[in-house]
Amino acid sequence: MNDIDAWVWWLVGAAALGIPLVVTAMPEFGMLAVGAVAAAVFAGLGFGVVAQVLSFVVVSVALIAVVRPIALRHSAQRPQLATGVDALKGKQAVVLERVDGSGGRIKLAGEVWSARALDTESAYEVGQEVDVVEIEGATAIVI
Predict the structure, then answer these.
(1) Can you give the residue range of the structural domain that contains 135?
(2) E-assigned strands of 1-143?
(3) Interacting residues of 47 by C-beta distance below 8 A, sequence separation 6+
(4) Bigger pLDDT: 1 or 91?
């Protein structure tokens, strides 16, 4: 096997490692594929089999040891975007009809909502601003 064949085989190996990367979504296969590309470069430059295998191992291990923990840290820190009714919690609303423990109406995010006070003893008058603490069905719970 000559040097040209060696780099081709390393690239075939890199492509073969890319298949399980796509199928399983395991980034480690991608890191091994990058190691195979590094070995293909070494083979293309005329280095021997030992240097090729060593470059594959060093690059693969370095990527797995350095990049993987960084990627895991970043994936764990994804901001959770509130959507739907969860996005309304903590918003301010204006009382349209008196709100007490048994009900009322508010204007929340440009829409009219039924509402009731969290504290059944409290009452909020027309024009007063309230904070939404929870959404139960189609009713906003306010304080």
Answers:
(1) 84-142
(2) 92-100, 103-108, 111-117, 129-136, 139-142
(3) 55
(4) 91
Which amino acid is located at 56 in the chain? F
Alpha-carbon distances of 105 from 39, 90, 119, rounded to whole Å: 69, 17, 16
Residues 33 and 14 in one domain: yes
Contact (Cβ atoms closer than 8 angstroms) between residue 15 and residue 30: no
Mean pLDDT of the chain: 91
pLDDT-based confidence at residue 116 (cuts at 50, 70, 90) = very high
Residues 22 and 64 grouped into a single domain:
yes
Which DSSP state fits 69? Answer: H
Instruction: Give the DSSP letter of residue 118.
Output: S
Among 116, 121, 89, which residue's Cα sits nearest to residue 104? 116
The tens digit of pLDDT for each residue in 67-82 reads 888 888 887 776 677 7
pLDDT digits (tens, 9 = 90+) for 77-105: 766 777 888 889 999 999 999 999 999 99
At which of 59, 76, 93 does a domain end? Answer: 76
**Alpha-carbon dihedral angle through residues 60, 63, 65, 70, given to the nearest 10 degrees:** -160
